[in-house]
Amino acid sequence: MRASLLRALVVSLSILFASSYEIPINANTNLTRHENLNLQVLNAKVINGTVGEVMRLKVNKNTEYIIQYEPDKERLTEVPLRVTVFTQDATLKNPIIVVVRQQKAVLSWELPIHVDDSNGGTTFPRISRTLCYDPWNNATDHLQNGYSVKRLMLEDPPIVSVATSSIDDVTVEVTVEPEDEFTIAPNQEYTVAVTPSEPKYFYYDFPDNATQTDNTQTVVLVVTSEDNVCMTVSIQNASCPVFDLNVDVKFEGLWETMNRKGGITISKSKFPYGFFVVFVPQGDDVECEGDDMIDALNRTKIVKYIIKPSISYVDYVNAIMATCACIVLFYMVFGVSFFVCSSKAYIPRTMEYMGDSAVYTPTTPVSEHDMLDNISCETDYDTIAETILDKAEILAKDEVFLSDLARKDFRILKKKSYSYLWHILTVALFYGLPVAQLVITYQKVLNDTGNQDLCYYNFLCAHPLGFLSDFNHLFSNIGYVMFGLLFLWCVYRRECWHKDNDFDAHFGIPQHYGMFYAIGVALTMEGVLSGSYHICPNHSNFQFDSSFMYVIAVLGMVKIYQTRHPDINATAYSTFGVLAVAIFLGMWGILASSYYFWIAFTVVHIFVGLYLTAQIYYFGCWKVGIKNYYHSWANICRTPWDTLRPKYTSSFFLLTIGNVCNWALAIYGLLYHQKDFAMHLLAIFMINTIMYFIFYVAMKVIHKERVNTLALCFLVISLTCATTAMYCFLNKSISWSQTPAGSRQFNQECKLMRFYDYHDIWHFLSAVGMFFMFMVILLLDDDLSHVHRTKIRVF
Fold first, then answer.
1. DSSP category for residue 592
2. Cβ(276)–Cβ(252) under 8 Å?
3. Left if phi > 0, otherwise alpha if psi is -120 to 50, otherwise beta: which for 146?
4. N or C, which terminus of the chain has less Cβ within 10 Å?
5. Cβ neighbours around 212 below 10 Å, total
6. Smallest Cα–Cα separation from 233: which of 265, 206, 207?
7. Which residues pair with 49 in a beta bridge?
8. In what helix (H) or strand (E) does residue 597 lie, and over which residues does it extend?
């Protein structure tokens, strides 16, 4: 009785709202009103409807239908209702107006519905909406698949009114039916079909009973589809209203775009009363594909979704503790082993261990600060070098030895070497702090807006911690930091062994420890910057992840070159100047890449490669210019046969292979250039560093120099880690060069301890690989430590 009175009251109020005066009504009475002087008659027909029945109505500007639905206690006890309205006669100028009145809400829309797209919009003649109500206040506990979930209870049925401003009759079909499978159970896959005008949403409530293997208070929504129709997935609080149209779906909760794969990690702390999962296809695929791909005739999307409990707290802690334990264990094993092996194989670098047969010309002892006190800048160093080094004399020699290119005072070289360390520390400070500030701001914006498209996470393996959405990808960079610090300790320990300045001035390879320290700092900062990037990885900040990879590659090449060319090695100013240009090119390639840009870059790439080849082949004594080229040719090509036969056959052959590889890389970039220019540029640096290292080792073997056993073991470990790491890198879990939806197609489940994916494993393996490669460079020429420089060849 009370329900009937309430429905009558609602109908009366609705008619009163549209009338100039009140008229008593009955269930099937025609309602009439006069509008001022127009004397138009509006007939509001109140009819009864049955849930599941298709109501076919004809409406016009003078006739409105109000449909009252009686509750069906047998069918409507656990699921909400869904209203579907269809018409082929209505137009955008005179649409059908549908108003659905509920106990606590009013829902309205127009038909045909207009969905915006890049071509101005598409209209759909059918619309279907699920009616909203508060599931928390209309639910009872229910056991499903071993979990305690909520069973929804129905409110009073809705009242649907249909009207139009069209003069002609418009045929409308109205259907109210239950929404099947509205409540989501954990670990159960569901399939649903949706369109831009027929979105759907479903309810999930966090179970009360947790297990030791699953964290039911944090869950992961996994969404897959076989088609490319772009869709927005939204997670909203389980309360009214629900935003389930393209115009408003991004107003509330968490949301992301997807086409074939998507996922969101959801915590009970943000949705204490459960949440709605909303699926809304878009009018076109521009936001997902980046191109105008519209198929207005078929925007139906078939979606499969499942909600899985996240990793348990115990597994979370165990993964972190296991990682830290492995690093500590590595420190202990490596530290003890390296100390023992180094101590047994170490011959003190002092004159007393050389014997009477050593080829040695003593120098006058010089105090620690002599000469350096009179040199004020880097220009003075270069001036001194030019007065000592006769480049024409060097080019005229059939064989060049290290004594020809190591004439500078070792204290000058030491100070130049340490300038690399001060430069990189300055760059690290002024680059790292703004980066950290920016990405933390990105994370806060994501938390405030719910825009999951802002950060390109692997949503299927992203474990939050505090305000961080993806802690595991940040934490896995700890390897770079810890191994960088370990390398700094190894360099410091070796430097402490070098105390005899007279010995170091004439025997072995000149040690530029400042450059080694710079490499260690670069490895450490790679961990810091990569971790910062993974706080919120996206298209705009990829350089945060790769910048210090450029630094590592360039410093590696410069250090290898320095071993045999100490007097003519690049200064810190020129080296970091090159890095600045590289960073600029990387930014330009990301923001304004074009076909002409790729042509210009390819030309620069090839000519820079040729210039560096000439510098290596001519021992750094070749300069750009016709006059300089003539002098170089005159010193080397003394007979007609010399013009056809390379003077340094081994170097010529290996450098030719290196140039062919660079030409192939340049042509590939030109022909198959992608949006990922930064990765192409990084590949150029890394590949050339590896090729130069191979060239150096090959030349050592050709000149019958020995690679010590410890360095060889480290090289094997490094290559093994690098090969495995490259496999993990190629199995990427995101792609920042794609759209957010395109990046999600690479998302994958965790592969290690339910905590790390392939990219995390790449972090660990690449950190170990780079550490051992740096150790190889540090130890590579230990076989020459007691050989006089007049016997060490330059190549």
1. S
2. no
3. left
4. N
5. 9
6. 265
7. 69
8. helix 595-617
Q: CA distances (Å), 21 to each of 15, 473, 739, in order? A: 9, 67, 57
Range with the poorest average pLDDT among 84-93, 593-602, 771-780 = 593-602
* Summary mean pLDDT of the chain: 81
> What pTM value is reported for the model?
0.81
Q: In the predicted model, is pLDDT for residue 502 greater than 60?
A: yes
3-state secondary structure 376-421: CCHHHHHHHHHHHCCHHHHHHCCCCEHHHCCCCCHHHHHHHHHHHH
Among 435, 696, 643, 628, smallest CA distance to 547 is for: 435
Distance CA 551, CA 547 (A): 7
Q: What is the DSSP letter of 641?
A: G
How confident is the model over 478-495, as a mean pLDDT? Answer: 93
Give the Å distances, CA to CA, from 525 to 257, 437, 517, 558. Answer: 33, 16, 12, 19
Instruction: List all residues 6 or more positions away from 792 whose beta carbon is below 8 Å from its beta carbon.
Output: 401, 402, 403, 508, 509, 564, 784
Neighbours of 157 (CB within 10 A): 22
DSSP 3-state of 766: helix
Helices (H), 267-312: 286-289
Residue 394 identity (one-letter amino acid) = I
Verify cis geometry, omega within 30 degrees of 0, for the bond prior to 186. no
CB-side neighbour CA atoms (13 Å) of 179: 26
Residue 333 Cα distances to 232, 337, 341, angstroms: 51, 6, 12
